[in-house]
Automatic annotation (TrEMBL):
This is Thiamine-phosphate synthase. It comes from the Bacteria. 2-[(2R,5Z)-2-carboxy-4-methylthiazol-5(2H)-ylidene]ethyl phosphate binds at residues 130-132, 167. Residues 15-188 form the Thiamine phosphate synthase/TenI domain. Binds 1 Mg(2+) ion per subunit. HAMAP family: TMP_synthase. It holds the Pfam family TMP-TENI. It comes from Sphingobacterium spiritivorum ATCC 33861. GO terms for molecular function: magnesium ion binding; thiamine-phosphate diphosphorylase activity. 4-amino-2-methyl-5-(diphosphooxymethyl)pyrimidine binds at residues 33-37, 65, 104, 133.
Amino acid sequence: MYSRLQYISTGNTVNEQLNNIRKVLENKGDWIQLRWKNAPKTALIDLAFQVGELKEKFDFTYIINDHVSVAYKVNSDGVHLGLTDLSIQQARNFLGAGKIIGGTANTVEHVRQRIAENCDYIGLGPLRFTSSKQNLSPVLGYEGYQNIIQEIQKEDQHHPPIYAIGGVKQEDILQLQHIGIYGVAVSSLLTQSVSTQSIIQHINHEFYG
């Protein structure tokens, strides 16, 4: 099954992005979502190929945010789609079988939509305000997650893994796990940390025991 911790990359240049991604991989992170909003297409493709080359040294799952054509071009493991991006089925038709396709959700209706679309995992959020994402959807908080998870579990015991996303902190992990969240997708938590390895170990310990 999928790793419980997904790192969403950040950085304003190819080098910044690569350095942040390499830092996570060197500290035993094993799932990278390449996310570079408003990047020139040529720079994004260059970066995407370079991240793919890191697979020669590190064993990790590699998906790309939004850009299905780039994911196809560099043969990444999959793609993460927002609610206004290409549909899950269109992406699956384009990328072919065996690729991971995740989708964003902010409400219980969105989660139902993603389940109906047969996405492979759901990124549900935000937990709280985060400066790393523009056009933020309404904040859920613990109560919002709990209400959504309870509602979905009543309807479908076999839903895709649901990840908490957006402003997740280290101290949130245990509570999110108790609520029924499968894993977390984080950016600033790892990018800005001086103890990346200990945070990754803590998150994995809380989810895997």
